[in-house]
Predict the structure.
Amino acid sequence: MPSRHPVICGIGLSDYPVAPHLNSVQHHALAARRAIADCGIAKSAIDGYVSTSGGGPGAGDDAVSMAEYLGVNHRYIDGTMVGGSSFEFHVQHAAAAIKEGLCDTVLVTYGSDQLTRMGRVLGTGGFQRDAQPVAGAMQMATPYGLPLVGAYALAARRHMHEFGTTSEQLAEIAVGVREFAGLNPDARYSDPITVGDVVNSRMIADPLHKLDCCVITDGGGALVLTTEEIARDLRHAPIYVLGAAGTQTHWNIHQMPDFTEMGAAVCGPEAMGQAGVTPGDIDTAQLYDSFTITVLLMLEGLGFCGKGEGGAYVTEGHLRRGGSMPTNTDGGGLSSNHPGMRGIFLLIEAVRQIRGDAGEAQVPDAEVALACGSGGWLSAIGTVILGKDRPS
């Protein structure tokens, strides 16, 4: 019987980190075209489409609009939106749809012109926040001026209070990610930085400094998933989806049950259990680095170290090039690209590593990779385990 085990057979990136010639729809389309070319499948064979909007209200890049724009005649469509981790959930959903025979080949896309769009509005590349009515749970926080970064600062400060974590330890994460960015010619920032550079950069929301925060860019990405059987006739060896799981513990930051623990502690072990692996079997981790504290909490939740031990773990150099767990090997959101939602870039880099196509940043003998995305305010977490070999 032909194998319906889901695999990733194609990946594509649009232009980043700055692409004033593309709007969000065009980022979706360019990444899709490159992913389809990468695997060599006919577009007419794609019968599933999964996406989420990256262009803001009225951009016309929602799932149903993009399916029409791209000419995808689908039997399966999904527009799940849980923030930056949407794409890990997309892989979970697409893999299940393929297994169940709801479709055979799924295209996943994302595109955002966030940086350029802000520049077009202001002419300076700065932020503009129009006044909007506030409803629901956000009424409990918005009047007090809590910004996005402030939510993560709450988590960082609590972790420091409970476990003695320091700003210097958080800075180690940014320094390690920047080391990999130096190997990526397309990264937004590639000059080496030190722990001192991070802790002496401008304070944004105590205790998080500017270099603890992700960059703002344009960019897009795409994946093609299909069955193992179909992939045998395509250009690359299939990358197997070994496990995929997601969870949401809250949405608004003031509803987070424990500022020192995120949903990675739930979906990480579940995805690894499906894959039949442990943290020690992972060769490289691609973790959502919206802020340094996001990575630290993920490392603990996924079981790479114990709760409260993240600071010591990163200081030992495990995340760096040559370390035991090379992390964010494309330069991450802290240095390479972060066009609003970054989860798809984690998956693309994981595939590159398993294929052995990561150039100077290649992790030797990488066979199992983990991608963990975070959406909302440390809220909706998705974990995907990818592997070079077919599961037994």
